[in-house]
Every structure is written in C-alpha cells, then in structure tokens.
Design a protein that fits this description.
Blueprint lengths: L1 H6 L8 H24 L4 H27 L7 H15 L3 H12 L35 H9 L2 H16 L1 E2 L2 E2 L5 H9 L2
Antiparallel strand pairs: 1-2
Helix pairs in contact: 2-3, 3-4
Length: about 190
C-alpha cells in the first residue's frame, strides 16, 4: 500500500479534496442550523426542513472529518486533528475522545471480533439483530422499519454512554478508557 503513495507522489496523511469537503460540510451545518433558528418563529415548516438538513450535515461530519481525524489523516497537524475532533463534541454532541477509543482503539484492532469490537456489542435480547448467533426473535423481522428511526436517537445514546464510560466504568466493552486530558475534559463539559 505504501508503494501506491510513493508511485503517485501522494501524502497518505494529507487529502486536500477531503479537507475541502470537510470545510463545506461545516459551512453547510452552521448555515442550515443558524437559518433554522432564525426562521423558527415565522416559518416553522421551513425551519423544520432546515433542521433535518442540519442533521444530514451532522451525520456527514461524523463520516468524513471526524472519522479521518481519528485516523490522524486529512492533514499532518495534530492540532488540526484535535480541532476536527472537537467538532464532533460541538456539532454532534458526542465525545471525540470516546469515539477514538471505540473506533480507533476498539473497532479497528478487533474488527467484528465478537465480545471485543465495541461496534458490534449487543444486549441479550437486543432491539436489533446484527450477529448471526443472536437468537432470532419475532421483532427482528421488522428491524428494517424501526432501526433507521432508532439510529436517529444515537446522539442521545452517545451522550449518556460517554458520561457513564468516563465517570464510572472507564471501559467501552473490553477497551480501557484512558484518563482524559484537560482539552478533552473541557469539550466533554462544554457540550453540556
């Protein structure tokens, strides 16, 4: 894989295209968020539409700049990675610090390893079936209908989980949560 970057004279730690997309996503998020607040009193339906679009931008912020920052990419600057990560705390209400523990330290080293990968952890019984060895329950046949609606509540779930993991368990499944820095602590409290 390194040879690809060498042959094409590319820097694996820098992507001007994704950085540009990230900036546009942040602009779209703050623009639609601000407009939805300004229009709330006089144009409620337009404000609701803009709020939905804001949610779309929020999800894309998680998928591109926050994800890439957790992998120390988009730029060579650790300061920029932390800044991009902080937008997860501000725009999405979820802790970038906890996200890094879940995704970078939990999911990637143990991808789809049941019992270790925090991305595939389930209760027994769970509201959704994502593992083959989960006992098939009658409500799972309808999860294609209700799961997308429940995923809309992930921001609330992450806020609660982040605080529980930070203050009590100090783990995300089997992944140990290291004590946060002052920068991280500031953003965890800032979003509340």
């Amino acid at each position: 894989m390194d040879q690809y970057f060498i042959d094409n004279k590319l820097n694996p730690r820098s992507s001007p295209f994704l950085l540009t997309i990230s900036i546009l996503l942040f602009f779209g998020f703050f623009l639609t968020y601000t407009l939805s607040l300004l229009l709330l009193q006089n144009h409620i339906y337009l404000a609701i539409l803009l709020a939905l679009i804001t949610g779309f931008f929020s999800a894309l912020i998680s998928l591109i700049p926050v994800h890439e920052a957790s992998h120390a990419s988009l730029t060579r600057s650790p300061w920029t990675w932390r800044l991009l990560g902080a937008t997860h705390d501000i725009a999405n209400g979820a802790s970038f610090y906890m996200w890094c523990h879940q995704h970078f330290l939990g999911h990637h080293p143990f991808t789809n390893v049941e019992g270790t990968d925090p991305d595939i952890w389930v209760n027994d019984p769970d509201i959704r079936r994502i593992l083959q060895n989960q006992k098939p329950l009658p409500h799972y046949k309808h999860q294609f209908l209700y799961a997308p609606l429940l995923y809309g509540l992930l921001a609330a779930k992450f806020r609660i989980n982040d605080l529980v993991m930070w203050f009590t368990t100090r783990t995300n499944g089997k992944i140990r949560i290291n004590p946060p820095s002052n920068w991280t602590s500031f953003f965890i409290f800032f979003r509340w």
